[in-house]
Amino acid sequence: MYKVKFLMGPSDCNDENIPSYSEDFILKLSEELKEQVVYSSIDEIAKEALPIYFIASGGAEIDFNKNYKKTSGKYILLTTPAYNSLASALEILGFLHEQGLEGEIIHGSIQLIAKRLKVLKNVAEAKQKMKGMRLGCFGKPDGLIASEVNNYDLKKQFGMEIIHIELEELIVEFNKGGYQENEYTKELKQKNFDKKEIDKALNVYGAVVRLIKKYNFDAISVKCFELLGRIDTTGCLALAILNAQGIAAACEGDQKALVSMVIANLLTGNPGFMANPNFIDSDTKECVIAHCTLPLNMPDSYSLTTHFESGIGVAITSDIKSQPMTIFKSDGASRYFTHKCTLEKTMHKSNLCRSQMTIKIDDETFDYLMNKPISNHHIFVLGDWVEDFKELYK
Question: How far apart are CA 222 and CA 150, in angstroms?
Fold first, then answer.
């Protein structure tokens, strides 16, 4: 639902048809958004992640001046093509700039207005959810020398916090054994693979879930390579299930990847594939990406195999049909990269991490990866979400 504050000029100098025209406009906008748009009081608007002022006519700036201090953040000025609505919004925006405040006029066709409002609402709600999020990191990324996040910058930029937990605590919890069955654990156990190895890998999942509950974590990363020699299995299945359940979970203790996965999940509503870029053809701009785990609800189909580097445990090899994707990476503060790419095909080569994709990138992405990458791992999300990521960082 979109709640808007209806504002119009004094009735003695405005057309009596403005209310009915405005209601018709709002009805058409609701149909395009596929969500209801309703008039609300300024007190209700102030509670919204995205406060919207509906500038119905000329002279609305008078009522706006009486109400604007009750909301905070970016002022969204929704306008119509009639009754001096845009003219009033221009006056209001000029006023806001004089106060050192930020605003945006939403104007144009119903289709363009709806598209812009969806992005703005999506980003505003994601920002709201980020505040106070607790990201648990089991072990620090010693082997990844450019993947730690400055906690002060993370709190300042997004309101999230990283909490470090010794990997030993996860190992102790793993040794207790046990996990709660769900649709994913049942599905995994039906796969044609060593049942003892699957059960061992699922005990990692059970241990992580219990620690998430203990520490009230919203997302986690695991320094999983250190697990190999300690418990003789991998974290691949645990992370695959958690990401499918909407809990961002990053490999190798990578904190920047974890923050990026959290942002991607909140903005898109979809889990992200954390992957290594392995090979880029400078002529064709085809890039091979791979990793041994991905969200279980992301591929069209998948099967189980061993972890690539170690040859032990349980990893995932997958197939996904060709479609648009978005590449995204954040440094946990103000720097980020995002661009649209295309998933061309999935593969099953023996010399790469197990879930493998060939994606088509453009010159800008090629230049970024070759000359100024935000470390190694990048997050890939199905669909085109570039506008949403860019809006978040405005």
Answer: 18
